[in-house]
Amino acid sequence: MAETVDRFVRNFIGGEFIDPAESSCYDNFDPATGAALGRVHAADTELVDRAVVAAREAVSTWSQTPVAERVALLRRAADRIEERFDEFVAAEVGDTGKPVTQARALDVRRAPQNFRSFADIVAAAGQESFITDTVDGRRALNYVVRKPLGVVAVIVPWNLPLLLLTWKVAPALACGNAVVVKPSEETPSTAALLAEVLSEVGLPAGVFNVVHGRGDVGEFLTRHPGIAGVTFTGSTATGSRVMSAVSPRVRPVSFELGGKNAAIVFDDADLDDTLNGLTRSIFTNTGQVCLCTERVYVQRGVFDDIADGLTKRALELTLGHPTDKVTTTGPLISQAHREKVLRYFELAQNSGAEVLVGGGIPEMSGELNGGFWIEPTLWTGLANDDAVVREEIFGPVAALIPFDDEQEAVSLANDTDYGLAASVWTNDLRRGHRVAQAMNVGMSWVNTWYLRDLRSPFGGMNLSGIGREGGASSLHFYTDPTNVCVQL
User: Do residues 65 and 157 share a domain?
Assistant: First the structure.
């Protein structure tokens, strides 16, 4: 894939790509082979400041651009992404190592959907208004005017880099904000491609900016006094540092952080549907999705059936070159992340876990031998207070734990510091509604996983985040309301 990625992935500031000095660059690696794809230009404090200044200069005009013009540009961007679809797929696969079938069906396909969805939402948005009769006999009209925040820092992770980037950028731009984007250092390429697309469709210079680099660049950005808000998806630990960075200036934040998501399987659930759903929720993107399931609570009467069925499906997964259409499972993102996951494999063993499948590094042939591969892994014999069950691993792993009744299942599932997502598997519709509502999470599925209307609110509770995005929730985050009161 290296030939599809520029030798330099450059910062994009004020409508222009900035030519780097070689000393400021670092290697970008292909997770499937471990080979270098190219070089990435790391920003410094001066470039971050230039990006914020460019955004602040541009937002004064962009925020006054009529909504109809802003959303028309978003729709043109969606069209252009589709025209350059294969380029985005190649960049996404090269950076992440995910199977090309997933990149085509999910990651890149969602990007134009995000632009069109938020174009529709913003175009249709109205304003709140109230006629008030006061106790002293006066009448007043109150109405709300929503104004863009200004310059928004957009920080996105490496697991779904284009999907989450467009999920945040589309509503921010539609609402009249300018953005400075900080992609993960692991996955910079699609952000650079998106900068090209937005320039091609006529987005004014400075409205969209990209600065690359590691955590220090994100810290420079979030501490910058010119930033009016921060939207961040990533680890809980990093989210805490971002919150500390913005707290002196009391800037609004939207955080979608880590998860240790539970699935509850009752003994009346459809076996095949449940196994198919759990296979997706545990192993999609090699478990590197914030919504993936790492805890599976199974009613005792069907525990063996679920354990055997999931083991069989795990063994049927195909680890291979990401561009091969038969590949179902790619590598982990980096060697460092694989070392983290392997430490949890050791912890599970020390806790007395029984390994149903996996538990190590697979043997890969040829150039794939240098990649960051890990075996899809399932455990039994663990308890809810074991570190492997309590801490987010972010790999293709799950612990299977039995339960006897509904009350116990709900108690076990909610016994966590996180609160992002859960799934409930049952043919009892009343119980499905009841248990889904009892989950202390931001997203609760019944007999499905990873299915959502883009107009619905998305986010987590507790260590899984603050705030919601999606639909009207995004409009509320990316704007500030002013109430106007006129006596009648």
Answer: yes
